[in-house]
Amino acid sequence: MSDDTTGPADGVHDGTGPVLSLSNVDGGYGEVQVLDDLSVRLDPGEIVCLVGPNGAGKSTVLKTAFGMLTPWTGTVEYHGRDIGGMPPEEIVREGIGYVPQTDNVFGSLTIDENLRMGGVARDGGLDGVIETLYDRFPIIDEKRGSKAKTLSGGQRQVLAFARALVMEPDVLLIDEPSAGLAPNTADDVFDDVREVNDMETAILMVEQNVTKGLGISDRGYVLDQGTVRFEGTPEELLNDEEVSQLYLGG
Amino acid sequence: MTVLGYLANGLVFSSIIVLGSIGLSLVYSIADFANFAHGDTMTIGAYTSLVTFGAVGGLGGAVLGLPYGFFVALVAGIAAAAIVAVGTEKLIYEPLDVDSIGLLITSIGIAFIYRAVIQIRFGSDFTRFDLQPLRPIESLVPYGVRITLHDLAIVASAVVLVVGLHVLLQYTDLGRKMRAMADNPDLARVSGIRTKRVKLWTWVIGAGLAGAGGVFLGLFNQLSPRMGFNLLLVIFAAVILGGIGSVYGAMAGGFLIGMINQLTPFFSTVVEALPIWPGWLATALENLITIEYANAIAFLIMVAVLLVRPNGIAGEGAT
Asked: What pTM did the predictor assign?
């Protein structure tokens, strides 16, 4: 271990407590353990990227944070409150959004209906928020009445973000936003991630494309075998010889 | 009887099959299992309305040859089917930690229980609604169509229920949530849909429509404890033909299977009229295409359609 995994990072947003934190979490699927004493935190307004080899447990971190998996031990805290094991449909109401990697739109529903589904937990102001999102993402505005399955990969990803943003979450968990996208489209999607972040949503993201993922992030964690091996700013991680040798494909 | 006559009968029978098929498909797509107790849910609706009709039968005037009391009994049948289905979901299916095959097998047991309870109370004999049998509608008889006002009431009620379901699915919040759940249950939860609640509503709607189908089946034929179970395979055929999990497919499949079922006598007259050679083939076909084999013929056509369109008429199974 060449890096300290528990100490404070030189995050840009010091001074307030983390908006989301996983502390000493063991967890996984059924009997299969994936996460091993894992601790990760997200400060207000940050973009944090989780990188690491396949099977390192990156997506599992998001699923555990979002209540799709219950942590075996350890805590998941949102604004200091334990939400470990709370079901996803309730976590959404707390202010966390989640964009799955695949199957992240309702293909047989229209764009408009997809966004309405994103806002089922809102008390009101749904139409206003949806209009704002159409303004922000004109690419889906043009296709309001079309079924989501007619969208291209990049358009789907935008719709998936927009659906999660209807709740105006404090925190957005994004699983591999660039998966399956052509390089140009992936760049657009990363721009969108930044834009979402400019709307004061903190983002915890898993990304295979390490350079691009870290490139738009404030901090990053390198995961391996279900635990954090390295933590630091993108520069620190990308320039660390051991990190790049072992985990970032040289 | 003329072709028109067979088509009219087909329309009446289809209406019943469609009501049964929709619920089966809806529950399949949202609660994620093939409910073998669906036929007996129809029976529950039928017998509840029989009892209710016995109590309120004479009520008020009449619509389409049916006293107002019959419609009260219809609503009671729908409600009972829905309540029993929701109760079963809450007490049995939901607490069971089994996969969809486990649920399927459980539902076979549930079907036996429903039927046994009805049989204990009503015996296994046939019975019917205490209604004056009607003569066919005079003005249609010259066209070879011999349907009664009761048959018309069945078709009209089924149309109202199907249109109502369509409006619910397409234009209400609950309907959109149901479609979202059928499309992608995980994403539905991620979006904040309280899926257990939507599932219960699915049971209410699916079983309620089955209850209505059961009442109409009782009106069309007669009632017996096996009436729903006997129809279940035909309903499955309709649902699979339409594309299992698709509500609109179930409507289409139910319509086709019901039609084919009632058109069988017409097919046999066609076969008799055709110069089929060799003679043994003609004899074989004449013997096979008879009303006794109506269900088998419906299944053969289902198999033929599935060979061409493996996912059924509605394809991917999107609600």
From this structure: 0.87
